[in-house]
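Subject line: Sequence and fold of a protein, written as structure tokens
Body of memo: The sequence and its backbone structure tokens, given next.
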Amino acid sequence: MAARDVAVLVGSLRRESFTRRIAVTMMHVAPASLRLEIVPIGDLEHYNQDLDPDSPTENWFAFRGRMRRAQAVLFATPEYNRSVPGVLKNAIDVGSRPKGKSVFAGKPAAVVSVSMSGLGGFGANHHLRQSLMFKDMPTMQQPEAYISGAAGLFDDRGELINESTREYLRSYMAAFENWVTRILR
């Protein structure tokens, strides 16, 4: 069986963000049966219903096409003001519209939140889950992934140096593989 296509949506635009680093690490430790790719969201224009469905932007069109091809979605988000960054929410809005044409419906999903604080992005994680539930995305409930203290997890090259976090991410991705398989059977 071919590897499952998993789109990875990273809610931080900063090139060296801790959230992006965690997402890249998850891509490296994922089982071979999952093919993960970060799908860029930074160039998506703000969603504006006046442009849909007759005149979607080229970026919306490309994003929606890529997300349609994905079989599952891994969301990696930092926490901004106890919620998700606007850029990630915008990507969800762009992909879920126009009404009745959501590129997310029915696709298995998982959420990892990343924070420098001790709460590990708990607020962002749960806000995001609320949106995914509404978009009919079966989202893995257990295990949960709240990565805290992110500033101390990486070396100067951006490599994860905390082995217990690496092992946790490996087990999380194994659980996600099982979740995807169960939903898509």
User: Anything to note?
Assistant: The helical segments are 18-29, 58-69, 86-95, 122-134, 163-184. The beta strands are 4-10, 34-38, 72-78, 109-114, 145-147. Residues 4-184 form a domain with the Rossmann fold fold (CATH 3.40.50.360).
